[in-house]
Amino acid sequence: MKTIHIGIDLGTTNSAIASFDGEAVSVIPNSFGENLTPSIVRIDRRGNLMVGRQAARYLETDPANTRSEFKRLMGTDVATGFAASGLSLLAEELSARVIMSLLSDASDALGFTPRAAVISTPALFELPQNHATMRAGKIGGLQEVLLIQEPVASAISAGWREDTPGLWLIFDLGGGTLDISLLETREGMLRVMDHSGDNFLGGKDFDNVLADWALDRLRQEYDLPDIKSPSERRALLKLKNACEQAKIELSRAERSAIVIPELCIDGGGNPVDVDLEITRGEFEKLIAPLADRALSICLLVIEHCRVSADEIGRVVFVGGPTMTACIRTRIGEAFGGRIAPGIDPMTAVVRGAALYAATAGLDATPANAGPRPLKGMAVRIEHLPVTSDLEPFVVGRFLPGPGEQLPAAVRMRREDGFTGPDAAVGSEGSFVLQASLQRYCRNVFTLAATDAAGREIPLATPRFAIVHGVSIADPPLSRSVGVALADDSVHVYFPKGTGLPARKTFVHKTVKSVSAGGGGASLSVPIVQGEFYRAHRNCLIGSLEIDAVGRDLPVGSRIEVTLSLDRSGQMHARADIPSTGKTFDNIIHILIPTASLETLEEALKTAESRSDQALKKAFRASDARSARNVNQVPALLVEAKRSLEAACGGDYDAGQRLRRLILEIEGTLDAVDQALEWPELVQEANEKIEVAVYWVSARGTSSEQNLLDQAITEARSAIDSGDALELDRRVKTIRRLTDAAYHRDPRSPFLTFDWYSENIASATDVPRAAALLDEGREHYRQGDADALKSINSKLYTFFPGTEEERKRSFDSGVR
Ligand code: ADP
Ligand code: MG
Fold first, then answer.
1. Which of 71, 249, 346 to mutate to test the pocket of ligand 1 (most atoms within 8 A of CB)?
2. % of the chain residues with pLDDT over 70
């Protein structure tokens, strides 16, 4: 049975599904015969569901029960309510309804319901959002889901036919979002170098600009009220829809009209007849600032990658609004005009996803599908449907029926003429052939089998195709993932750049006790993402909470933590506690700041007071640059407050904008904090260097001495260039070298013991630590270093870093 590969583009505005049968990609139309299904869900008061174009009709008239743009809420726990039915669904559940609708269209077209598919997600998506997309696929009825980044999918559909090495810029402008990605292909492998974008720039903004223009023109003729009431808003929506139609028309035509007879903008009193005409030139002038914004984001991305505009080998345009002529010329010309030809911007993503499903070997046909009727000898052929290898192997096996003789030889012929040499058929009927492919195209082969006399034997499935094209390098991890420890350091499980999938287990020890029934006190295993050696400088992405363990778990108990990341970036965390036999499985709390308004309001207040403090600190430190940075914050705060008001009025977008603003404010304040902390960081580094020089010159080996010299040089240059991350890393090396030398010194057990005695107050279990100290003092007096060492190693359990460090390290309960 032929394999079928399915791709799904789950867009913010529109979704689509495509199939690839190894020969051709086809976008599967929905029941309206359209390639795109609007990502809109409606639930009526009886709980009946409508998806797509049918639901879209109700956006104007029944917005309380019709929802769009839920992709923006993916990965959050914000539930979207449907007033009439009283139902309320998460973004992933709404997306699942869209997927169900796409799968049912596919089922009509293919005759079976796909069991597996590749779903595309924006490069800007982080783990929680990807996670939610996987869940949407599963809820939607898929047994297997793989994710692909949208820009990679676009690139695959733009380039699988043609050899274009070098850098590609993927410009994806959708209904409400802009995603810019810089991709690199090298030896047939494809990877995302960098990406950026604007979550609030898209086709909808074009509509708004045009609607504003229309309102201005109408105001010149009529006395219009400010738009406030719901009915006025409904009228505005109608106007925007008309503007969208006009905008789309202007992509083809030189002029277009916005016509709405008797539009009731002021609630029904005085209907106005809208009849406006706009030329393409006028429209382009209106949207020029939006095009500028988009271009500046592209330039930032390439600047960030230290690439110049003329190094871009190819620009791929994706998304509906890129059909607007001036966007194409503006962006295209800025990058040398090398625009990928012949790509449908509306379906590039979904086509690429379907092709990738083939590369990944994800077959969508139901496992129990029966064989097709055969004529001739059955043969099973196995090969990669898409490969970057020009001479891939094809293996197969003849399955002769009763009375049929195995062929003696087999060969393959490419449809455009090439014929391979004869290969022998093994006694089991198996054979191996080597294909020769033409670059970047679909290669169709026929298999020819002959008997010992050279007569051809008819075969049941003699034809098959292999596509030569790019394959994707497994997406490497963009930031390191690890467990934050109680001493505010990170145990890195997966360093940045790790290929996926990946799985690691490490043993940790608890630093506080957990009682049998839990009783409120739980132990956290925080999971962080980032490059800093100090845990608190990284980003918390989730945690395992260990509570009710069945029996008391004393300090120092073993916990085995396993983190596994699949190719889609989905992470499972698991903790095994051998002493109790308990496992805490899949209990990762994904921390994407939820858009709950209370939380955001709190965050805003905190940001406000932080900004006051930061300004004072910057002033006191007379740090002009930091002060300048803090000074940008009040304007952002004002905008955030405005968004908060709108969000409280039920505007979901405003809630998301608010979240983004808060992140931006926090980012600015973090940068200021780091800048102000910088002198401390430098001082700490200098102190550590001083200590290291002492111990390593006294007790280090010559290679340790060399490593230290090198680390010091690098730390100094990090200080010169103001690179906190680099300095942090070097200090870590310096501390390690110090530790090694220190432990070689005969005085070290005594010095360590002294330290414990002085810091007894910060032990996690003071009575037990004190008892150990009493025991140790005797050995100390007798000068018994070995005995003291064993006491020290027991004491170590009770000193997992200071309380302050633990608190900073996201309350980590492990070391
Ligand atoms: P998303 O990726 O967000 O799902 P799409 O790529 O499907 O979005 O783009 C939807 C947007 O494209 C809408 O704003 C729509 O008005 C706009 N659009 C569709 N066709 C055209 C066109 N021919 N010219 C300009 N804009 C278009
Ligand atoms: Mg899209």
1. 346
2. 89
